[in-house]
# Entry
Amino acid sequence: MARDLGILVIVVLVLAATCQSAVVSPVSESHRSAALELFSPAHGSYGRLNINTLETHPLRIVFDSQIVDLVFQYKISLALGHVYLEETYEALKTFKVLGIEKKHAIRTSSCASVADTLKSTSSALKDFFDALRVNSILKCELNSEAVRGTQSRLKDSLNGASSLIDFYYSIGGLVLLKEQMSEVDVNLGDADRIFRSIKALGQSDGRWRLSSNNPESSNNAAGIALEALAGVISLATPQIDNSWVSFDFCSFVLANSMKITTLKNDILKLFDGIERYDDGTYYFDEKHVGARGHQSPLSSSASVVRGIAAVAAATSETLNLPGEKIMGLAKFFLGVGVPGSAQDLYHQIDALSYLENIRHVLWKLTSFRTLYNKAHPDLKIYSSDHDFVAALVRVSTLLGSPAPTLSVRLMQIFVSGSKDASVIDQELKFDAVSGMHVLETLPKNIDVGSYIFSFEVIFHNPEHKKTYVSGGRTRVLVHITGVIKIDNAEIVILDGDRGSVENQKKLKLPGDNAVALSANHLQKLRLSFDMSTPFGNAFKPHQAFLKLRHESGVDHIFLVGNSGKKFEIILVKASSLVLLLDFLGLVEKFFYLPGRYNIQLTVGDADMENSFLQPLGFVELDLPDAPEKATRPPPQAVDPYSRYGPKAEITHIFRAPEKRPAKELSLTFLGLVLVPFFGFLAGLVQLGANLKNFPKSTVPSTFAILFHLGIAAVLALYTLFWLKLDLFTTLKALGFLGMFLMFVGHKTLSHLASTSSKLKSV
Amino acid sequence: MGRSATTKDAHALFHSLRSAYAATPNNLKIIDLYILFAVATAVIQVAYMAIVGSFPFNSFLSGVLSCVGTAVLAVSLRIQVNKDNKEFKDLPPERAFADFVLCNLVLHLVIINFLG
# Structure
């Protein structure tokens, strides 16, 4: 869709990145390797492992090629071969823009499915569109009859189209056909009507609706509409014929230019709805969730860029788009980094390629690097003639190709945090080998600290100056770091009122120190040291703390070089830092805790390369006793990991067991309980109980015996129940035994009853 | 005089009871003996509890109630089997005995369950 028809390009420059890392870089090898990974072909076509497509294309089957059986996959891909055309197109377009050659692997099968789609009568409008898009990259050999059939289908659907998507597909298909097959006649007779019907779906804020029934408008739809309208304009070009009357030709050209003017106004209205971040990134986002599912800002912005590119391609006039917004869009697309999904990568790369064709965007990478002395490659040597720090600026286009010849000049240096600036106007030397602009020498008065460098681009070719407009000056925050010297460090105990020195120790900073001091509450402690940059200038660090930590863990922090109520600052030179601790006033702050206090000094700054945190030794403080109302020192924090350690052992308190009787007593009573039983037996004997009525003949006697055995069995079951069984088992067994016992008992007792009744009657 | 009269009366009462009792049929005497045995066992258990304390109370209850229950069932058996009892004239004694056995078995199931 993008053609160089002598479009006027505008160059916008951007300085990105800080000295630490390149934040946003143009398209690079990481994009290429991501493309190869994300668009991996599954048996002949590009399937995409993307769950999101299920919502919009229910026919699509999403599966993992390693899991599914290859045979099944093959059959599916044959049956639904045309289903993957959209992904195939996205993969091919991405590879084409990135310059990756990978087409041969899938060319045959893709061409086959393209041909099938164009021949088949059951293909949907979208399938035609996708097939033609794939063909525009692969340039397969197509059957001319199929092409004619496709053309008539597209024209018919265009005439009957009512929704934006239908217009888009049919017009897009016709434009692609026109590009690929010059012999096919795709000119539109009623271009005006189609143009008006597409325009009718537009809204005053620049967005478009998808159809007249659907009131929701979106930027995505706007992009689609712009592409469709641009397609209408390009298709409406008539055949130049000798029989044309000049009047018709003029009216046609007038109508065309009016259409283009309305399109340009639409684009400008659309740009009014652009959103932005504070760092100058511009993007398009959707306010509503449209009918095609949620569109991300990436896909909406990509759609709008495609639309604008199509309009730019269809007309030979300039589209005066605000350069700042184009640069903001480029920042947005590059700011995505390397996307994780195939569709996002396609949108990003596609949009960048169209953006390149609309405007050549120069992307500048700044990195400040310390050059190491060649003699000692491991050592960072700070020499006084400051030729060790070099600034590197690389200028390239969005897709990584080199920029036209230009030079970069350092115009001004501001000290960060102050308003004064020095005007430099120094040109950076261009290193042709690496393609970078190098700042080799820094101005003389630059010392350790934070600065803002202001750069400007100057073109060598005066023609470029006509067509390119430089974006003005851009600023980069720079930290110049160095090793700070600390001299004259000493710690002194001063005697109370007289101020005489009692104990003085010299310190080596930074270095190992083990100072042992002792003081009482009437004395003062003074710490002083000087700091200077390598060039001898005074240096004031951001952080200078002295920490006194008691052995119990309570610590106190004092700022060095700060004026407070209790401290006194003596500035001897501009660069020296002093801390004076008056213990008399600090007694209460120390919670009246006497003992050993460890001293620790911390000095640091962002621009200081040798920031340090060091123990200096200890001071034995003798403080008076605490009065009753003094505050207690705060409780020390418990080690947070002790929460997960083992807890104290719990001793359980059990209920005291009941007092049991003596064993002998229990056994005695066991014997006593059995005594009545024997008494019963004796009584039975005395009464003359006998077994004379026991049945004699076989059958009744067996029943009788079984009856008694049954009772005995039930009693045995009860003992077992008491000893180890549970109720349910017992009940089950009892059920069976009970049945048996009933039967047997009935037999026995009825026999006995009949015997006794016989006796009675006799 | 009165005291000796009462004792004499008591003796005479006791003798008449004894002779009347001798006239009861043997099977009733066996049942009476059984009842006596059950009650004696219950009394011994209560005495034990009185000495030792009622800690496993459920065991005590189950022991005592088994004795008492079986005694009660024997009493009802005696009533039903007694030929002089007009109410149960038509009930064959074997049937009464079968009821006695069945109820005892159920009682002992419950007792064993409660024994713990």
